[in-house]
Amino acid sequence: MFDLFFTHINQKVNLSEAEQQEVKTFFAPKKLRKRQYLLQEGEPCKYLVFVEKGVLRSYNVDSKGVEHIIHFAMEGWWMGDIYSFLSGDPSGYNIDAIEDAELLMITLDGFEQMMVKVPRMERYFRILFQNNIISKERRLISSISYTAEEKYLRLVESSPELLQRIPLNLVASYLGITPETLSRIRKKLTQKK
Amino acid sequence: MFDLFFTHINQKVNLSEAEQQEVKTFFAPKKLRKRQYLLQEGEPCKYLVFVEKGVLRSYNVDSKGVEHIIHFAMEGWWMGDIYSFLSGDPSGYNIDAIEDAELLMITLDGFEQMMVKVPRMERYFRILFQNNIISKERRLISSISYTAEEKYLRLVESSPELLQRIPLNLVASYLGITPETLSRIRKKLTQKK
DNA sequence: AAAATGGATTGATCTGGATCAAGACTTTTA
DNA sequence: TAAAAGTCTTGATCCAGATCAATCCATTTT
Q: Can you tell me the distance from the alpha carbon of A173 to that of B2, in angstroms, rounded to the nearest whole number?
């Protein structure tokens, strides 16, 4: 259950066997069926979760009722609404499973205790957050500076795994374009080759 | 020189006098004139800087030669290209001063040593990065989900200070719209009132 | 195995915001 | 203090991508 979890953590900080045992105590396992919600808009986000298996997405719904995907999380990724998780305020996001998923969950209390008890986890999260900032910044630049086609090509480049596993209409939402536009872009690109 | 600096840090983690003295040793002061570069595209970002006074911006230039502003940083904010800073790779950003500025700079070596020597600074940056993720996520949602007018209104809401100090053409670039569009939006909004 | 649901494609049309152009006003620079 | 550069506004036109609509398959569900 914790295999992938510690593999990922030990890539960034090296935990002793004792630290691993300590860390384990803060997490609870959870299974989620396809289409099942982990979080619905209006609820506070009570858990930060690590994805052991499956794929989750987070999205918000705009004033016209259109869904906009904020993130995907597949094996080895974290998911949650950090703002709501930390503040306790109601979340503006929905999180659900795109594929059946197995998760490890931690509460805010657990998270804060863990930071104190296992300082190496504080380091792990500092590094994780650094990387998260970098990838959000890349995405923001894509979104502000590039055309729909360029955005798609950057995604192909940076996250080919996503395109293998996620339906194109969801990929389009993630890129901030319509499924029709994405379909036309892909057609154009295959013809070009 | 370090007044604002420690005020900000102590809002998140409380440093003892001894810790403050230790932290100081990792930073060097720097003044920047308006329009002067802190970083130019192609160079590695050697310093993370804290703004004691003035305003900086970071921006990239797209294939058509158009500038896109990634961030502003005024008093009490940090600035740098975190990706380039951490990896040592050449940066794709430019950073320059919009107003004369006074900065405190730290190198990557300094940063990493400081994390070890003053663990409370590791905590400070973990929290800083958390908040940074939250604000980037907000901005990403703005950018993907909202119209130009809604983006502007959200900025008025979340960062009124920015609009006081920064020319509108730069605000437009930050919002990912043209100065003409921003001008028309503002006209429409004042008429509406 | 029939019906319902979800995903992808293609065509026709529409539109928010970009682009191009010009003028007014203000701040720098020489 | 004159000229140049930067900032903001307004008007006319254009276009990338959205919207609306229909069809085709592939999976689920019953």
A: 45
User: What residue spans define the domains of chain B?
Assistant: 3-118
Place of tokens 């090509």: A153
Q: Which of residues 151-180 of B touch A (CB under 8 A)?
A: 176
B193 pLDDT higher than 60: no
Domain A3-114, classified CATH 2.60.120.10, yes or no:
yes
Interatomic CA distance for residues B36 and B31, integer angstroms: 10
In this prediction, residues A62-82 reach a mean pLDDT of 93
Q: How large is the average pLDDT for residues B152-168?
A: 95
Contact check, Cβ <8 Å, B82/A130: yes
The position carrying tokens 């604002």 is B4
Residue A74, judged by CB atoms within 10 A of its CB (0-12, 13-18, 19+), counts as buried
Interface test with A, best of B67, B85, B131, B137 (most A CBs within 10 A): B137
Residue partners of A131: CB distance under 8 A and separation at least 6: none
Topology at the third CATH level for domain B3-118: Jelly Rolls (2.60.120)
Q: How many CB atoms lie within 10 A of CB B38?
A: 24
Using a CB–CB cutoff of 8 Å, tell me whether B127 touches chain A: no
Give me the mean pLDDT over the A161-171 stretch.
Answer: 95
Closest Cα to residue A178, out of A58, A73, A95, A68?
A68
What kind and span of H or E run contains B155? helix B148-158
d(CA A13, CA A6): 10
- pLDDT mean over A141-148: 92
As a whole number of Å, the end-to-end CA separation of chain B is 43
The strand D neighbours among A residues 135-154, by Cβ under 7 Å, are: 147-149
Which alpha helices (H) appear in B2-77, and where do they start and end? 3-12, 17-24
- Give, in Å, how far the C1' of C9 lies from the CA of A182: 10
B176–A60: do the CB atoms touch at under 8 Å?
Answer: no
- Contact list in A for residue B137 (CB cut-off 8 A) is 70, 82-83, 136
